[in-house]
From TrEMBL:
Protein name: Peptidase S9 prolyl oligopeptidase catalytic domain-containing protein
Biological classification of the source: Bacteria, Pseudomonadati, Pseudomonadota, Gammaproteobacteria, Chromatiales
GO molecular function: serine-type peptidase activity
GO biological process terms on file: proteolysis
Occurrences of domain Peptidase S9 prolyl oligopeptidase catalytic (ranges): 114-311
Length: 314
């Protein structure tokens, strides 16, 4: 074949190669995008856990309550456990991902301990969980609106000394909200993640058994497109810099393989310039497992923390 013919043949053939490659790329991203969509759907639509226990298990009087989330006014369901002496303030409990107001193991025992310490307790379900409205969970983003709604509700009841105890996702949400709302005077954060982007980036391949690329970036993109969940916006490690002169107790376990204690250690380092922050590491405790390992010490430490931090007055 003459040399002059070859370039013309290549030029005619090249567009076909480009179109084939583009078609293969499209098929690839449609296929992987479909898999990523299935992961996203399951992540933001965990099955609801039924409420099977109430504060009555611990002999506590309570009343059923409802209040709206801040911003988008999602109706949230909960309980209010008034204190025998209303002078000790109020603590809001914030549950973890795929839990409800009572299903985290420490939740009801903590409520009973706080009640004995003269502190009122508000327990509620985040959106899409328990008996609250909503059908999407955002792992700490829109849950901040829910916690702000609970704070607003407590303030409407007349409480001015407000604390929050959170477990896992609820712990990270509590830190985020306390950094933004001065109404929160004290926080106990049991097993929080330091920032959602790093946490999901590290764990998504293990949970899904899918390669990190291209699936994790696709999952993050689809989370943002489907329900506005920008994982970079849930970053307690960045946002706790705004917290000053608020009491914070971080709790972590050495055997936590869900949210390793390095997350709490990083948060503590970010807070340590403020003498009001402390970190309690419990040897052998798994995720939100400090209460299981050291139940008496856990309740004494948490109730004592809030009794001191909230003080007297309403």
């Amino acid at each position: 074949m003459p040399d002059s013919v070859r370039p013309r043949s290549v030029r005619r053939f090249l567009p076909h190669v480009v179109w084939v490659l583009l078609a293969l790329a499209l098929v690839f991203f449609v296929a992987t995008g479909s898999v990523a969509y299935d992961v996203v759907w399951k992540l933001i639509h965990p099955s609801r856990i039924a409420l099977v226990e109430t504060p009555a298990k611990f002999g506590l009087a309570f009343r059923n309550i409802e209040f709206p989330s801040a911003v988008d006014r999602v109706r949230l369901s909960g309980w209010l456990i008034p204190a025998a002496e209303p002078a000790g303030g109020l603590v809001i409990e914030a549950h973890g991902y795929h839990q409800n107001r009572a299903s985290d193991v420490p939740a009801l025992p903590v409520a009973a301990a706080l009640h004995r310490a003269g502190i009122a307790v508000l327990m509620f379900d985040f959106r899409g969980e328990g008996r609250s409205q909503g059908d999407e969970v955002t792992v700490g983003l829109y849950e901040q609106r829910d916690l702000l709604g609970a704070i607003d509700y407590a303030r409407r009841l007349g409480y001015r000394r407000i604390g929050v105890i959170g477990y896992s996702m609820g712990a990270s949400t509590a830190l985020e909200v306390a950094a933004k709302d001065r109404a929160v005077r004290a926080v106990v954060a049991d097993s929080p993640f330091a920032d959602l982007y790093s946490y999901l980036s590290a764990n998504m391949p293990e949970w899904t058994h899918l390669p990190n690329w291209p699936f994790t970036p696709e999952i993050f993109l689809e989370l943002r497109l489907i329900n506005g969940l920008d994982v970079c916006k849930v970053d307690p490690l960045r946002d706790v810099a705004a917290m000053r002169q608020r009491r914070v107790l971080l709790i972590a376990g050495t055997a936590d393989h869900v949210v390793p204690m390095s997350n709490s250690e990083a948060l503590y380092r970010a807070l340590h310039r403020d003498a009001a922050a402390s970190l309690w590491i419990v040897p052998g405790a798994k995720h939100v497992g400090a209460y299981t390992v050291e139940p008496e010490a856990y309740l004494a430490r948490v109730s004592g923390f809030f009794h001191e931090a909230l003080g007297a007055g309403r």
